[in-house]
Amino acid sequence: MIGKRTAGLVAAFALVVAAPACSGLTEGVRPSIADSCMITTEETSVVIDLEQSRYAALIAGLTLKRSLPARAASIALTTAYQESEIRNIDYGDRDSLGLFQQRPSQDWGTPKQIMDPYYSTGAFYDALVKIKNWQQRDITEVAQAVQISAYPDAYRDHESDGRALASALTGHSPAAIACLDRSPDAGDAKGLASALQKTFGKIKIGREGDTVTITAKSDTAAWAYGQFAVANLKTYGVAAVTVGDQHWQSVADERAGWSAAEEPAEARQVIITVR
Question: Which domain of life is it from (predicted)?
């Protein structure tokens, strides 16, 4: 398994400016940003595109389904960053495939299984929990013990970003994700409810028209569900999310963040509205 960190990743999120060739910025024209999500924690900020946000939320969410600590998500997301840039790619070194560049020839599963992100993430966690003292050991060391990569130290470059994504998407960093999508898919409340159940397991979900309501068992779980929805704004046409007294709403041409809700939800309740 050989990770491939694309040199132009940062450039993908660079400011795009409309300006005449010889006159600099046109007066009154504001720079715009790419459709993307920014995750901000006490440690750092990281920007990912909407494909990455969807898979990152899935990887993190499955730790809650398996009752694993957030550190498992940190290790998995650090690994996926290095191996595939958190993309479910159908190519790689030799027969490597998917989010974690797992190899059918090394008994990770069939190509079809590995290309299923739920299967491949589950296979990663199955291997992770067999590593001795994985919860206490260095993230890069543990990632290498699972992956057996030709570049054992490469994971270290992505530890900070992996921890930030894990903290937000497991609910340990509330109100940490801000996203922009100028061309969302049609609203799909049923699909979103199914994805939440598949990712997090047995959770109490209600659905009525364009609204999905979740009652969580903890504040952390509520934020994991709410930020999963925001990370999946494009796939399910998510327009607004309320977690307790905090509210997120899609805004044109800027990454929308969280603010005090005008109509707060109940404690540990998540209300998601699709378009």
Answer: Bacteria
